[in-house]
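pasting for ref
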Amino acid sequence: MDIIKYDVYRGPNIGVYVSVNDTIGLVPMGFAETKADKLAEYLNIEVMYTAIANTRLIGALSIMNNKGFLLPSTAYQDEYDYLKNETDLEIGVLDTKFNALGNVICANDKGAIVSPALSKENCKVISDVMGVEVLQKKIAGSHLSGVSVKANNTGAVIHPKVEENDMEIIADVLGVKVEQSSINGGVPYVSSGILANNHCIVVGSLTNGSEIMNLTKAFLN
C-alpha cells in the first residue's frame, strides 16, 4: 500500500470533494478526466461522477464504506436514484440538521465513530446501512467526530489532541491501530485531506514529512 500526494481544484482538501471505498470513487461533475484517471489508478477503483445536494462537496456531505452509502436529507432525488441504480451499495438518507455527514461520521467496515450530536435514530440508520457497530463520542472535545478521524480496515489516524484513553476506545470500535496526526502541514481535521481505502492512501499535496511518517505507522505497519 502506497501513500501518494494529490490535490483537487488546486488545493489539498481532497477529502472534502471526493469519497471512496475499495471499488468506487465518487467525484464531482466536471472533475477533470485526467485527474480522475490518476485517482482510479492509485486507489484501484472505478470513478463515478455525481453531485450531493447539487454541490461538489461529496466527501463533506456523505459517508461511505464497502457496504453502504449515506446521504444527507438535502440530497436530491436524482442523486439518490443514480447511486441506488448504479452501485451495489445499500443507500440510506440520514434525517438530521447536521447535513455535513462527513464531518460527524467516521466509518470503516468494522465500526463507526459518530458525533454525540446525532440522534439514536440516526445511529440506528448508520448501523443498518453501513453494517457496523456505532459509538457516539466527541474527539478532542469536539462534536466533529467524522472529520477528526480517518480509517480504512487496517489503520486510522486521529486528531493530534485526542486523549489516550479515547484513542484506545476508538481503536477497539474500528478494529484497527490508531495513530495521532495532522494533515496538510498542521490541519488537525484529518479526513479533510485524506482518501483511504484498503489499496492505497492518497493525501493532500501539503502533507509534510512528519505527517507521512505518522500515516505510515497508522496504515502501513
